[in-house]
Amino acid sequence: MPGACYSLITMIKRAFLPLLLLTSGLASAADLTEAEIRWLTAGSAVLAYAKQELKLPLDITVQPQASATDVPLALGYQDGRCKLVLSLRGNPKAEDILSTVPIAQRSLMIEAMVAHEVGHCWRYAQGVWHALPAGFEERREPSRAAEELRDTRREEGYADLVALAWTQQRHPEQYASVAAWMQQVRQPSPATGSHSTLAWLQLAPTGAAFAAGVPVFEQANLLWRQGLARDQ
Fold first, then answer.
1. 217 contacts 122 by C-beta, under 8 angstroms
2. pLDDT, tens only, 96-142
3. Which helix (H) or strand (E) holds 224?
4. For 161-218, what is each residue's pLDDT tens digit?
5. Whole-number Å distance between alpha carbons of 128 and 41
């Protein structure tokens, strides 16, 4: 329906233009595709929380065309700001990652993915990216590549726990579905892969694993430390 589409685009403009860094291929938020609107809408509660309540330095970039190596959603850090990059155009991975999810639940999984990326932003903004908490000693690795893989895996584990903690806080009745999907997504990774986070996901089989009454990032941190103890 044209009217409904216009209303949705207007909502996206109002909610995200302060965040959006439109690339040269996009003239305005009206140029967003239906898929981009759907993903931004699904993640809107997380993005609003990150920007308005946490005051995280977060910008959103919409790629006019994805490259062969782009994942649908990624986060980087540049000049003191987090860069959430949406790469959906011409990207089959955007469909593949949700292919096993019922249509009615896809927005929920996208929301979890956005929460995962905001978890990365939190770590960057706190100045603790690739840093261990106090009390942990860094183990030696045989090579620099092995160290980088280990460090990336730890950050992915933390971000996955943020996604689950967010889900437990906002959608507790859907926790089991999100946790099962995340385990499925991570399962194909080899045990030493950079996104092999099962050691952390297995610590949160139900939402009861997260401490009540504390912020999402602290909830994730408490379980993350348990996983790090196993990873030593």
1. yes
2. 999 999 999 999 999 999 999 999 999 999 999 999 998 888 878 88
3. helix 216-231
4. 999 999 999 999 999 999 999 999 888 654 456 678 998 999 999 999 999 999 999 9
5. 29
H or E segment to which residue 108 belongs: helix 106-125
Residue given tokens 């609107």 in the structure block: 37
User: Are 159 and 120 in contact, with CB atoms under 8 Å apart?
Assistant: yes
Task: Count the alpha carbons within 13 Å of 124 in the hemisphere toward its beta carbon.
Answer: 21
Which of 129, 94, 194, 115 has the alpha carbon at shortest distance from 161? 115
**Which whole-number Å values give the CA distances from 133 to 2, 123, 137, 198, in the listed order?**
52, 12, 9, 20
Output the six-digit token pair for 171.
């959608």
On average, the pLDDT of the chain sits at: 85
**DSSP three-state, residue 227:** helix
Distance CA(109)–CA(107), nearest Å, equals: 5
Percent of the chain's residues with pLDDT above 90: 62
Q: Is the Cβ–Cβ distance between 222 and 126 less than 8 Å?
A: no
Say how far apart CA 108 and CA 220 lie, in whole Å: 19
Q: What's the sign of the alpha-carbon dihedral 68, 96, 189, 157? A: positive
